[in-house]
UniProtKB/TrEMBL annotation:
Name used for this protein in its record: PF07603 family protein
Positions of the Lcl C-terminal domain: 50-177, 193-318
Highest taxon of the lineage: Bacteria
Pfam families from the UniProt entry: Lcl_C
InterPro entries attached to this UniProt entry: Lcl_C
């Protein structure tokens, strides 16, 4: 099982968490980030790496253009095709042994890149700058936008959001990775209105809030989907009576794990297990930030962004595996 890392938020939007329970800071879900940073392997001075013990991935400690153990100099930005070449060229270093004596360097997929994000210090950056110095800014992934193959996905660690940009005309920073690819996702339908993500162990509400599941109609086509502001979303999940479980509003790491960037459907989520997810699909998360904003995931265009606390969004609740 691939345990999601905790989103890392430690403060509630409201002064006291118990004013509106169910915010991300109320829970310690997932596992803490488990990075070993600035590791210099023998015989490879000034070629540091960071190892993620949770995913097994090895990252280049410094971003493109930086060097040495302190990541001196500023980041260099590239088009996406040049970013692919930059990472591939790391494999030719050290007489073909690879940067830091490691082969298999490549541009990360968007799901891999997003595993580096944290919401612990949103006023600074959505990445731990101790583990990844000067890691704020936009970074390319290798994942093409299936709806527009002239574009590819990137992640902006300054704002904690992803975006799709033209591969040839847009420049972003680069952080290369080595290691196996992310496990293939799979789901199990418990036939009681809940679905388990076998990769993360999380159990999800099959239907969106407002829709009803029944044995006679398991396609979530009874009732009408409802939208909720932030406080109402927290209450909706907290009060959900389904399958004898305790429910909560998912944090942004959890909700975005349902995004499927390979789909061409109107909603970038597995419709077999989450049927009747609307084509216009903006769902709230439990993560808030200063400025009366919360994070939400848009399953229409696979974009993670922010919106006002008062904005109404759809809701899909989550429960921890028992």
């Amino acid at each position: 099982m691939f345990r999601l890392t905790d989103a890392g938020q430690i403060n509630c939007y409201f002064t006291f968490c118990n004013d509106d329970p169910g915010q991300d800071a109320d829970y310690s879900t997932g596992v803490p980030g488990t990075f070993q940073s600035n590791i210099v392997l023998s015989d490879y001075n000034n070629q540091p790496v960071t190892i993620d013990r949770q995913t097994g991935l090895t990252w280049k400690y410094c971003a493109s253009g930086q060097n040495s153990a302190v990541c001196s100099a500023s980041n260099d930005s590239y088009t996406q095709s040049d970013a692919v070449t930059y990472c591939d060229n790391l494999n030719q270093m050290n007489a073909g042994l690879g940067y830091a004596g490691i082969r298999g360097w490549r541009l990360p997929e968007i799901e891999e890149l997003m595993t580096l994000s944290t919401h612990k210090t949103p006023s600074t950056a959505y990445i731990d700058l101790t583990e990844f110095p000067f890691g704020d800014g936009e970074f390319w992934s290798n994942t093409a936008n299936i709806s527009n193959t002239a574009e590819a996905w990137g992640f902006d660690f300054t704002y904690g959001s992803n975006n799709s940009a033209n591969k040839s005309s847009r420049n972003m920073f680069v952080r290369c990775v080595s290691g196996g690819t992310m496990p293939v996702r799979s789901f199990s339908d418990f036939n009681n209105g809940t679905v388990k993500d076998n990769l993360t162990g999380l159990v999800w509400q099959k239907c969106s809030a407002g829709q009803t599941w029944s044995t006679a109609s398991s396609l979530c086509n009874i009732g009408s989907i409802t939208s909720h502001n932030f406080v109402s979303a927290l209450v909706t999940c907290r009060n959900l009576n389904l399958a004898g479980r305790t429910w909560r509003l998912p944090n942004v790491h959890e909700l975005r794990s349902l995004l499927d960037f390979s789909l061409t459907t109107s909603a970038k989520i597995n419709w077999t297990f989450f049927p009747n997810t609307p084509a216009v699909s903006q769902y709230a998360t439990s993560n808030s930030i200063p400025g009366s904003q919360i994070f939400r995931v848009n399953f229409t265009d696979a974009v993670i962004g922010t919106t006002n606390l008062s904005t109404s969004n759809y809701v899909r609740c989550v429960s921890d595996d028992l």
